[in-house]
Design goal:
By secondary structure, the chain is an all-beta fold. It contains no helices and six strands. The chain has strands spanning 4-6, 11-13, 15-21, 25-27, 40-49, 55-64. Strands 4-3-5-6 form a four-stranded antiparallel β-sheet, with no helix packed on it. β1 and β2 form a beta hairpin.
């Protein structure tokens, strides 16, 4: 769970989280988790807005890779 704190009003702000596969397909998030079921780039986007409407955005990227299987 992500949190954001507004230093000016000394309050916490709601953080909205979304996940995008290869920056174009929205990935479903359940209970704060998602599955990297395809090889590619997954961008986790966190957005928070304060009471004045100022928006902060942070993007983290996770690379989904094929798993190696034993023969």
């Amino acid at each position: 769970t992500a949190t954001a704190f507004d230093n000016y009003t000394a309050t916490y702000c709601e953080v909205k989280t979304s996940v995008w596969y290869n920056n174009s397909v929205l990935v479903q998030v359940r209970d704060g988790k998602f599955t990297t079921d395809r090889v590619g780039s997954y961008s986790i986007v966190y957005e928070a807005a304060d009471k004045m409407g100022n928006v902060a955005k942070e993007v983290r990227t996770q690379i989904g890779r094929a798993s190696c299987r034993e023969r």
